[in-house]
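User: Structure please.
Assistant: Input sequence and predicted structure:
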Amino acid sequence: MGLLLTLPGLFPVAWAAEAAPVEIDRETAVKTALSSHPLVRMALDRSRAEDEGVGSALSDYYPHLTLSVDQLFLNTAFVGGVFPDYQPIAPELLNPTLTQEITDFGRRHYRVAAARERLESRRQELAEARLSVSYRARVAYDQLAMFEHLLRASKKNVEDAALHYRQAALRLESGFGVVTDVTMARLLLEKTKLAEIRTKNAWRKAQADLAYAMGRESGSFKTRREALPEPSPVDLSSAMAYAMAHRPLLLAARARDREARNHVDEVKTRNFPHVSLFAQGYLLWGVPATISGAPPGTGLFLPTFQSGVALTIPIFVGGEIHYETEKARMEARRESEKTRLVRIRIARNVRKLVYDVQTQEETLRLDRRRYDHARTNLGLVERRFSRGLLDGVTALDAETQLITSRERLVADRFRLQMIEDGLDREIGR
């Protein structure tokens, strides 16, 4: 219990207190997300790592130089002679070796090609991460703007409901109304207040979503008053063609597919002979002069070297190359099917989103007509209600229709924008 009582003091006040919202526009939200979101940084690091992988693969084209220093223990025949009384000696050997691959019949080429395709896939994955992060930031921004508008609409609904309640009370005082009208008006007022509380909490959660989409742990924001872009006509065939040519997710899958095919060719070349150039030098010291023939007091064995061309032909390695080739072929087929699956999924999503845009545009046109009708109808009903020509139920229905149509119009306009954001992301724009 004592620990629980001390927990609030462990956290900064900023976590509990609400700071004043900071005004932000859509472009700033997207730029902040792209610069600080962990998903983008992770994808960038993967891309840089694969960039180094290409350099590692290219290193096979250059000569390799190694140097080894060996401590030897000898007690047997040496250079055609025998140690005196078979006494062991402990000389040191310095062995520099230079090797240069002349040709391996395509193995290095396919290895480098696979590394470059892997790098291309990582770059496209970075582009996909940037696309996804910017999409989430735009949707979170639109969602926050939607709840800001809905919150203003909720406050207007409360004002309208309070006005209707006062009118019903005045009618009751003047003898033209009934108690039921006042009771129903009070109930409507309470419902609108509850709706305002729910909308305000949804607005606060939308702020948290925007902070997360921007790669921040916390933050309080408010959107800048910006006009939503007008919906542009959407053509299914052009959207599909653009998606198949530009979506980074599909381009990354195609690069992995090409990488797998290059890996199959690289494994197959292990059956081919290799031709390489080599040069080795030997410098041995610590051998008695009586054996080495070196001048007295030096203890050195004269350095020697050898060079030549080596032809290596694999004959039998226990079937390893065969199994590795079949494994690589299966992996290539899997990558090919994964690419086809990505293509099918993108085609389905683009088609669905284009239809969703068309449906939402028609819904929005209906919402505008419904809101205009509800506003006109409420004006007529209120005038007749104030004169005692209508009952409270009819007036309450008219007020409810206006509230519902206003909220639906606001929400559907932002839903259309979020659907368009999703379509832009799906086609890779």
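Residues 54 and 115 are 5 Å apart (CA to CA).
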